[in-house]
Q: What sequence folds into this?
């Protein structure tokens, strides 16, 4: 599938590499492709320079947000939650119309120190904000409840765990669920419409504290019935 | 252990019966013991009249909030979250001083319709509100992330699942953890101080939506590593 990934950080890179491995046609969208490809410094999170990563992943095209999205059927939002609406505006509503947006972002607010809080919650969610801003797109919230490695390689854990999908469009949720299964997920729970993203985004506070208590981000929620 | 349970609903009854089964000395605390024992109507949630339940559970004493708590080492808050601070004020700070309060309540706000939202979240929690209101008590938040039956009989699920403890006092968390293990819990994660109750209370929104999606409250979170 022709897929655009918005963002250039760890989540974007991890998803991009895995999609290429699975045979997808992947373009990373960024504000200024030339500037991104010229980056030789480590990023704010300590990741390898984008140029080095790109050299090791030659099958991933890099383009502007709009160009990456215009030719793609699936748009994956792997930007920071605080930047997501702005980036999607740069992509442009015309490039999102009818498309599936897989929204991985969390509405984390670091302005009050650590651990971060959520800038939208409980009576609204980032997933809903994106759906309202781009009503012709088909937003599916998923994979925001586990770390990048486990998003695409859930078999690294000792046993099967659970991921969730939230969205208004059944076909879009089927598309995303098939992708999740390709990644290796065996238990995908459809929570309902996009308002149910309130639930999965509000998992972040306990996720952050579990990271502290367990000393590793290599864990995931499993819903035991 | 001499234990007071605050509340007369399903959670209080379920915990009380299980504690008696495990050999504890249990008193249910209520506003007016005589009035509670005289109740012959089903309650707002459709539960059997308290009088009928009490007749079937003769080993559970019923007393006023203050009398139930004054002679007990462990106080279990099984009231509705919206009533918890008021009920604990009726118990009285002098009856809570030095005691372990196991807080099971969730800060659910039903005033905006279903599903409920949370009246405190993200930058504060009900567990913290209780700890601040009764600084001489030792509050441990736990078991607010699963339904009453599973709180005390987790072996009803197909496999082991996870529960959490949050609190400032290590000894109080050990007391609660031992009780959870007596109930049958095999994976108890100590998340840290009482501020980590923000994380587990914020699990409620996804819990409520999972109940809808799965069609049953008989499920629990497991943290797969």
A:
């Amino acid at each position: 599938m022709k897929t655009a990934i918005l963002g250039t950080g760890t989540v974007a890179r991890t998803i991009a590499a895995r999609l290429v491995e699975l045979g997808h046609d992947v373009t990373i969208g960024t504000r200024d492709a030339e500037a991104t490809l010229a980056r030789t410094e480590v990023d704010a999170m300590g990741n390898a320079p984008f140029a080095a990563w790109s050299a090791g992943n030659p099958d991933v095209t890099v383009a502007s947000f709009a160009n990456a999205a215009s030719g793609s059927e699936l748009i994956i939002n792997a930007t920071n939650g605080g930047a997501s609406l702005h980036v999607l505006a740069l992509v442009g509503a015309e490039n999102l119309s009818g498309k599936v947006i897989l929204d991985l972002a969390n509405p984390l607010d670091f302005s009050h120190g650590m651990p971060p809080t959520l800038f939208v919650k409980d009576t609204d969610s980032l997933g809903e904000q994106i759906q309202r801003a781009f009503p012709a797109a088909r937003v599916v919230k998923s994979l925001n409840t586990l770390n990048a490695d486990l998003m695409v390689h859930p078999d690294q854990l000792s046993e099967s765990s659970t991921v969730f999908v939230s969205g208004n469009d059944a076909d879009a949720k089927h598309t995303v669920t098939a992708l999740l299964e390709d990644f290796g997920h065996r238990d995908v729970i459809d929570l309902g419409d996009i308002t149910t993203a309130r639930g999965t985004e509000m998992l972040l506070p306990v996720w952050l504290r579990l990271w502290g208590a367990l000393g590793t981000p290599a864990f995931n929620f499993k819903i035991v019935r």
User: Anything to note?
Assistant: The radius of gyration of chain B is 16 Å. Chain B touches chain A through 40 residues (CB under 8 Å). Chain B has a mean pLDDT of 97. Chain B has one domain: 2-214.
